[in-house]
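Researcher: Please translate sequence to structure tokens.
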Amino acid sequence: MRAQPTKNRDMRTVLVIDDNPAVGTALDLLFGLREIRTLHAATPADGLALLARERVVLVVQDMNFSADTTSGEEGVALFRALRAKYADLPIVLLTAWTRLETAVELVKAGAADYLSKPWDDHKLVATVENLLELAEATREVARFRDERRRRRKALADQYDLRGLVFASAATERVVELACQVARADVPVLITGPNGEGKERIAEIVQANSAFRSGPFVTVNCGALPSELIEAELFGAEPGAYTGAASKAREGRFEMADGGTLFLDEIGNLPLAGQAKLLRVLESGQFERLGSSRTRTVKVRVISATNADLPALIRDGRFREDLYYRLNVIELRLPPLAERGDDVLPLAEHFLAGAARLDAGARAALLAHAWPGNVRELKNAIQRAQLLCSEGVITARDLGLTLARASAARGSPEV
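Model: Translation complete:
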């Protein structure tokens, strides 16, 4: 055996398993010209032994090893043994006698290619080079994913992530920044489309802040009539407005004193409420509706919106000074379409082991555009779980075809 010097010897090593020493010598010379290291084993047993101690990227195997044998059964047995122990190892079949049907069956079973003896040097080298490049790309992807997995574990070990499920680099960046800014007593603005889980990011900021032992109070500014938002936020005295209760009403700022107030859909806050909110952010002071008594609170404010706040400012519907006060730190949560690596982990999380996804369902989930983001994914999984048979979810159970067609026609994102 002769090995050519190369900077990446371990990364470009091919194992030739063939009982003919001349084949090993010829391929050693041929591959050596391309700085590919070649190992040679004369028997299947020797080949498996070499694989156990050498880092091999690709195997070129013969189909017959005993004299006067042309059935290819030995090659089939070797292929199956290799596939059983090294599921991702590319294997090229090389033989002069085996029936074509046998080789085709093995290619269907996962063999990378099939070449006849005598081989064409150019074709063989092209096949091997392509497979080596593909193997290197696959290793890079695996290394990248391993690194991301280590980073996620390090984040989870250092911070309280509130059980957030994610795998994408985009979500990781948002979570990492949320944890970094959590200890700073400054307002945080979380932006992104509806259905993305912006409240979960707010919970992470709260859980890792100096306010973590205090209350976490949520207000959806888009779910309240404009005339009630001020009373909801700042409280109201009896009779302060039409329909007011006969007792004083405590506002959300008072409820959140010593903790965090999460203002969702902040773009829907009316201008009068914006002025009061700006004052609270600057001084911690406010008055209930119908009262002249000034109250003081210590509250961390986190706001969220799917609206274009700069556009609202240009239209005169949002105060510019409030925008800059809220936007000391912005956390932008991308749509699920930009976080493809999150889709399957989230789907498995929503299933909670109650059913499993078959290959078709996984492919459908990854192909879908998810205009409704995480909320749409959760609903799709819950529906599929009810419709599936024997605990196995198929692409048909997910019912995503119509939604995907609608998205292709240009339906707007939710």
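Researcher: Any highlights?
Model: The two ends are 63 Å apart (CA to CA).
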